[in-house]
Each structure stands twice: as structure tokens, then as C-alpha cells.
């Protein structure tokens, strides 16, 4: 389980478009860099990111080594009713990191 | 004896010191597009790629991809490719029923000055593409050891 930072507005009006931001702390080693001792750092990346709202998918991203360290994503969803916004990251070893926030719709 | 001009000497010296950057060939880029979407015709389309004109480091370049969906219907998937990266595929984003629009912001790595290509798959299966050039001062693969 890695550290994550997510930002979901606390409240929104029904039908509003709200911006979601999510970031996970991960080195995203791309397999082209060396340590100061000259040994190659092997590839170590997050491969999948999923965001769901009301148990339905908002966005799913397949990540490659071309994504920067500490992958950050920002996207928009349409607020329908009060519910959980859930985030899940899976790295190449299968380790899953989850986070969630409550979006209250007035 | 070969007479070398000052310019030739400097160019030759530069060629010895600068390592040749590893980069994908255009056919590899085409292959990776085919590996994501299959072998289908691609047309130019109104995808907007927001990138800085000049990126000081290739380690983290902010990128926003958005697709005007009004005239085209929903966008199912968006894939981003960096043509000169050793591995051109950067990410593939698919939008679910709860997404408000086909728009995503992230930070990408770029190996050198190059074009970033985005391919979008629409709901009817059509593919559209767009590209944006970006100048990179220090590439992500040539930076000194250390994590950013």
C-alpha cells in the first residue's frame, strides 16, 4: 500500500462536472536509469489505474514507463447523486493500492 | 593531409561526446498503434494536445489531452505515443460511463525534442489522430542518476 493523494470536491450540485485529481507515490523506474554505482535500475511501474463512481467506471488508464514518477491524473466526472469515488492502482507485481472519497450531491 | 575547417572539427568532436539517443523508429510507433487499436485506417481529427512549447526536463512534462466530443459522439479510448521515446507508448486511457468528457491530464516522460501523437477511438470504432511538437532541453533518458 503506497501513499496516495486524491482530491475530490466535498459537495456538488446534481449534473455538475467536477474535476478529480489523483496521484500515487511511486518511482516508476523506466529501466533506462542507473544507480550511482552503475547498476541498472530494473523496470518498476504502476500498470493500471482505475477510478469508479457509484460502482461504475469513470476512467481506466494503462500506464507505461513513459509516465513520470509519482503518476498524476486529472479528469472530470458528472455528479449524479451522493456516492463514493474509488481509486485503485495496481503495480507490475500485482500490489494494489486503493483510496476513496465521498462526493455529496445536493 | 585532410584540411578540416573549424566547423567540421567542432561537429566531429560533438559527435564523439554526445551519445546517440535511443529512440523508436516510425515503424515501431506504427506497430504500437496497431497493437492497441488493430490495423485500421486513421484520420486526422480534432484532438487537442496541450503541451508546453519548451520543456526544461523530459522527466515530467505536463500533458492534457482533450477531444471535442460534440460532433463525433463519445470517445472510447485515448492513447498517447511519444515518437522518439525508446518505448513510444505512453498511456492508454479508456473512459467509462461516468466520465463527463474525454479529457485527461497527466505528466509524461520525453526522451528528446519530438512530436507527441494521440490516437482516439470513437464509439463507432473510427480512429482519429492529432499531434503536437514539443522541445525538450534535457531528455528523460539522459539525465543523471537520481529520481525526480
UniProtKB/TrEMBL annotation, chain A:
InterPro entries cross-referenced by the UniProt entry: Ig-like_fold (IPR013783), Ig_E-set (IPR014756), SoxZ (IPR030995), SoxZ_dom (IPR014880)
Record-linked Gene3D superfamilies: Immunoglobulins
Primary gene name: soxZ
Positions of the Sulphur oxidation protein SoxZ domain: 6-100
One Pfam family it belongs to: SoxZ
Protein name: Thiosulfate oxidation carrier complex protein SoxZ
UniProtKB/TrEMBL annotation, chain B:
Signal sequence segment: none
Superkingdom as given in the UniProt entry: Bacteria
Phylogenetic classification of the source organism: Bacteria, Pseudomonadati, Pseudomonadota, Alphaproteobacteria, Hyphomicrobiales
Domain Ig-like SoxY: 35-141
InterPro entries (UniProt xref): SoxY, SoxY_sf, Sulphur_oxidation_SoxY
Name listed for the protein in its UniProt record: Ig-like SoxY domain-containing protein
A Pfam family the protein falls into: SoxY
Amino acid at each position: 500500500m503506497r501513499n496516495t493523494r486524491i482530491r475530490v470536491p466535498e459537495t456538488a450540485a446534481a449534473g455538475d462536472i467536477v474535476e478529480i485529481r489523483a496521484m500515487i507515490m511511486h518511482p516508476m523506474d523506466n529501466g533506462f536509469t542507473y544507480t550511482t554505482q552503475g547498476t541498472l535500475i530494473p523496470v518498476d511501474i504502476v500498470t493500471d489505474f482505475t477510478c469508479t463512481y457509484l460502482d461504475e467506471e469513470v476512467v481506466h488508464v494503462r500506464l507505461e514507463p513513459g509516465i513520470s514518477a509519482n503518476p498524476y491524473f486529472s479528469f472530470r466526472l458528472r455528479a449524479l447523486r451522493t456516492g463514493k469515488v474509488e481509486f485503485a492502482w495496481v503495480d507490475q507485481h500485482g500490489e494494489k493500492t486503493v483510496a476513496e472519497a465521498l462526493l455529496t450531491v445536493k | 593531409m585532410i584540411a578540416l575547417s573549424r566547423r567540421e572539427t567542432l561537429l566531429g568532436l560533438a559527435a564523439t561526446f554526445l551519445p546517440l539517443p535511443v529512440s523508436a523508429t516510425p515503424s515501431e510507433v506504427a506497430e504500437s498503434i496497431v497493437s492497441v487499436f488493430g490495423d485500421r485506417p486513421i484520420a486526422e481529427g480534432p484532438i487537442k494536445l496541450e503541451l508546453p512549447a519548451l520543456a526544461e526536463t523530459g522527466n515530467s512534462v505536463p500533458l492534457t489531452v482533450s477531444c471535442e466530443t460534440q460532433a463525433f459522439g463519445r470517445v472510447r479510448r485515448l492513447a498517447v505515443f511519444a515518437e522518439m521515446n525508446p518505448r513510444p507508448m505512453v498511456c492508454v486511457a479508456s473512459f467509462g460511463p461516468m466520465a463527463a468528457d474525454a479529457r485527461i491530464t497527466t505528466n509524461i516522460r520525453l526522451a528528446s525534442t519530438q512530436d507527441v501523437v494521440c490516437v482516439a477511438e470513437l464509439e463507432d470504432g473510427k480512429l482519429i489522430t492529432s499531434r503536437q511538437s514539443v522541445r525538450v532541453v534535457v531528455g528523460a533518458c539522459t539525465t543523471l542518476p537520481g529520481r525526480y
